[in-house]
Write a structure and sequence with these properties.
Rossmann fold; 5-stranded parallel β-sheet
C-alpha cells in the first residue's frame, strides 16, 4: 500500500513517457516530482545533443546525485523520472531508500512508438541514441510494467491499482 514515505521511480528509455507519467502520478499522489534529466551535467547534455551515448563514467555521478535527492524526500514521498537502464544504476538510485519504500514503474514501449515520440518533441536526446539506450536496457523483473498502448489516464489508473493492491 502506498504511504507518504514512498519513492516511486518511473523508468524506461527515452521517449517512453517517463516525465509525463511521473508528473501526473506525483500530482495525483501529492508527491514531489523530480525530473532526472534536469540533473545531467552540461557535458553529458552536450554529448547527447551531439549523438554520443553516455557511458557509466557519465552516468554514475548523475545517479549518485539523484540518490541523494531521493533521500531528502524519503519521508514525504517523491516520484522520479529517470531512465535507470541498468540494474547497477538502479542499485545506485535506491541506495538511500529502504526497499520497502521503493516502487519501480517500467514504461515498456515499442520501438515504433518511441521513434514517433522522440521525433515530435524538443529534447536534447536525439533519435540516433535510441538504439544505444534500448541495447543498454536491462528490464527489471520486480517493476510494475505499464504498456504503451494505454492512455495517460489509463496508465495512472493502472499504476495506482497495481501499487495499492
Amino acid at each position: 500500500m502506498v504511504e507518504n514515505e514512498n519513492i516511486i521511480i518511473v523508468m524506461g528509455v527515452s521517449g517512453s513517457g517517463k516525465s509525463t507519467i511521473a508528473k501526473a502520478l506525483s500530482k495525483k499522489l501529492g508527491y514531489q516530482f523530480i525530473e532526472g534529466d534536469e540533473f545531467h551535467t552540461k557535458s553529458s547534455i552536450n554529448k547527447m545533443r551531439n549523438g554520443i551515448p553516455l557511458n557509466d563514467k557519465d552516468r554514475i555521478p548523475w545517479l549518485k546525485d539523484l540518490s541523494k535527492i531521493l533521500f531528502k524526500f524519503k519521508s514525504n514521498g517523491a516520484v522520479l523520472a529517470c531512465s535507470a537502464l541498468k540494474e547497477s544504476y538502479r542499485k545506485i538510485l535506491s541506495k538511500n531508500v529502504p526497499a520497502s519504500n521503493l516502487i519501480w514503474i517500467y514504461l515498456k514501449c515499442s520501438i515504433k512508438v518511441l521513434e514517433r515520440r522522440i521525433n515530435r518533441r524538443h529534447h536534447f536526446m536525439p533519435l540516433s541514441l535510441l538504439k544505444s539506450q534500448v541495447n543498454t536496457l536491462e528490464e527489471p523483473k520486480y517493476a510494475v510494467y505499464i504498456k504503451d498502448s494505454l492512455t495517460i489516464k489509463e496508465k495512472i489508473e493502472e499504476i495506482l491499482k497495481r501499487i495499492y493492491e
